[in-house]
Amino acid sequence: MQLLGIHHVSALTASAERNYQFYTDVIGLRLVKKSVNQDAPDMYHLFYADEIGRPGTDLTFFEMLGIGQTYRGNNSISLTGLRVANDQALAYWVERFNHYDVKHQGIEQQLGRAVVFFDDPEGQRLMLVSDQHNQGIEAGIPWEKGNVPQEYGITGLGPVRLTVPELVPTERVLVNVMGFKHVSSYPAYQDGQPDVEVYQTGAGGTGGEVHIEVRTDLPRERPGRGSVHHVAFRVKDKKTLNQWFERVKGERMPNSGIVDRYYFQALYFREPNGILYELSTDEPGFAVDESVDQLGETLALPPFLEDRRAEIEATIKPLNTKKRSRG
């Protein structure tokens, strides 16, 4: 029942069109699925990933028109990592960010790795991390037709940071319920705050880390555009997910039960500091209803929404997601 690493991270955007332009044109990810929020199908759900949408490479966004800004704070998923192959790739990204006026902090060191902190246009907090000295969970493969040269492209999701007012409640769930192991720590970026504690799952490394930042000086975050809704972790298949459901239920943690998301099966639950976790199966993946060559080009709906296609297409604003040339 060991978790296999990070599966995906889902965040909020106020504009699917501007979000698509940034994450494909500037960041070079591939849109592998253009769909809708299955619980509220009047809004887009966009999935960006590597060449074929491998589990562990998937950054997704729900479009919420008119959503306000994020007021950053506690009880939040406060940073999403993105992996690149090596330190040379980070040098490329610094130049690219300067060219596109992307707010960033230059190359820094964290846990012996080179990293670059940056924000997307809506204030999404992100970090590029070099895998030059990394061992552990295998990375994905950037799309060769993307807007970034393949050797510098994003290879998957990296460490996820949680910001909470107390360590123990979150640590207990990660370690005692979910099987994470404490592996390291590093000094906080704010004076007077506790060290950031590092936990890993699966084969470890950048693709399986959660960093817990304790902040005693912040109010609770008020989510908005650019904030993260949940982080999902990988399980092999539905049989294993059912075992996890029994464990979560046995811990008396409020949960969703098993939810069929068509591209994967999911289980949602919230830990005491308010962080929403999802456990998601690796199967069947994004090619279940589209060819790999045409992923993300048309509006994809799961079978249980297909009879509402006309209604949905009349409600959401058209979004042209045909392949773009390299820029």
Automatic annotation (TrEMBL):
Gene3D superfamilies on file: 2,3-Dihydroxybiphenyl 1,2-Dioxygenase, domain 1
PROSITE patterns on file: VOC
Lineage: superkingdom: Bacteria
Limits of the VOC domain: 5-131, 156-282
Pfam families on file: Glyoxalase (PF00903)
PANTHER family registered for this protein in UniProt: RING-CLEAVING DIOXYGENASE MHQA-RELATED, RING-CLEAVING DIOXYGENASE MHQE-RELATED
Protein's UniProt name: Glyoxalase family protein
Source species: Amphibacillus marinus
